[in-house]
Amino acid sequence: MDSVTCMDNVVLCTDSYKVTHHHQYPPGTTNVYSYFESRGGKFPETVFFGLQYIIKRWLVGQVVTKEKIQEAKEFYKVHFGYDVFNEQGWMHIVEKHNGHLPIRIKAVPEGTMVPVKNVLFTVENTDPEVPWLTNWFETLLVQAWYPMTVATNSRAMKSIIAKYLYETADNMDGLPFKLHDFGFRGASSVETAAIGGASHLVNSMGTDTVAGLVMAKKFYSCDMAGFSIPAAEHSTITTWGKSGEKEAFKNMLQKFNTGLVAVVSDSFDIFNAVESVWGKELKELVMERGRNGGTLVIRPDSGDPPEVVVKVLDLLGKNFPITTNSKGYQLLPPYLRVIQGDGISYETLDSILSNMEKHKWSADNVAFGCGGALLQRLNRDTQKCAYKCSYCEVNGEGRNVYKEPITDLGKKSKKGKLSLERDDKGVLVTIQEGKGSPEKDLLVPVFENGKLLVDQTFAEIRQRAELPLVLQAKKEQKQ
After folding, report:
1. Whose CB has fewer CB within 10 Å in the chain, the N or C terminal residue?
2. Strand segments (E) across 282-370
3. pLDDT band per the 50, 70, 90 thresholds, residue 3
4. Which helix (H) or strand (E) holds 388?
5. Distance between CA atoms of 285 and 149, rounded to whole angstroms?
6. Please, what sign has the CA dihedral across residues 270, 276, 281, 287?
7. Pick the CATH number of 149-375 from 3.40.1790.10, 3.20.20.70, 3.10.20.540, 1.10.10.10
């Protein structure tokens, strides 16, 4: 089988056991209604993001054809050892709906912060002949866990940085560029990097993951979602030899003689590089470049981050003119900054920034690069994401559906048709068993019968996901 064809065939994009499920629903079933939620996990709330990508990539338009059905029929016969595939059901979709999927998806707007244990989207069939279709697409739709979890993780890291900027800096203007995505090479595939990279950009404007930029442009109408700067890697420094490190650094300043440039400086001895090479031998060149609007960003890339970052700042402070800001914290001159790109994660950020604060260094002096911990060190259980049936109709009778395993009540599912509403205190809550108010429901129809109903832009999503602390700081600045 042609692997490219396989990867574009929705009739093949499901778990094997779902191929048999059309035989398993009660006779007379005409409607199956399911929902997706985060049942808990590492973070108490989630940034909902990424469903639009899945819809546009897999569901919009004529996605079912006779050729794809035939391909799937032959494949599943070999896979199971006999013919169990629902050819008739899929042919019905081609003949009655011209290959457009008769399902309806309602979802909370992307970028919305939703406390865990709340519905995020619902799915149901719109043709009573294909009730099995709702959960056929569980496999694809649950993959929303990944962009959602990356966006949530990224925002949580941004929140830590924002807290220290608020406490130790004169303003928070630099926050969009304080957490830079270094994760492309550590992702499991180009598609993973694209999805994860775009998810991080919901919260940030700094990235080296080009695939994420392409995804944001193609699926979320954003011409350019993020930015980067010229930067050295170890090979472009070490090829000059240990004795040539100074010349390698000098070359970076001269070839990129204005704007921001980042130079990895720990190839041999980070402290000597900072104190002697940058702080003495190339000091005048660094300052001259600064007078022309340039900024050198020094990158340590090894050692214990809280200790190394503070020591690098202290050494720079010995050789370059530092100032004290309005909050009493030290600030390097505007032509000099540090980026820590090794060992960065949600768990380590606070220790680095708290040590800087302890030594009276403003968080405005540093940016952070994050790779595996940003895009890869996550799984579906990070936020305990699940897709469950909560309602069906059998022989014209509606049934609330749920599970409640005595061995794990944390997996208890919701009942009936659901709505997401704000209570009297403004807190998002899920109303079950069809008792919600349609006027208050925040779940919006985004897909129906093969058509995308809402095309959300990256700008809208970013606005919804912004930190309250950032909005508060902007308000204070205006006063």
Report:
1. C
2. 295-299, 323-324, 330-331, 336-340, 366-370
3. very low
4. strand 385-394
5. 44
6. positive
7. 3.20.20.70
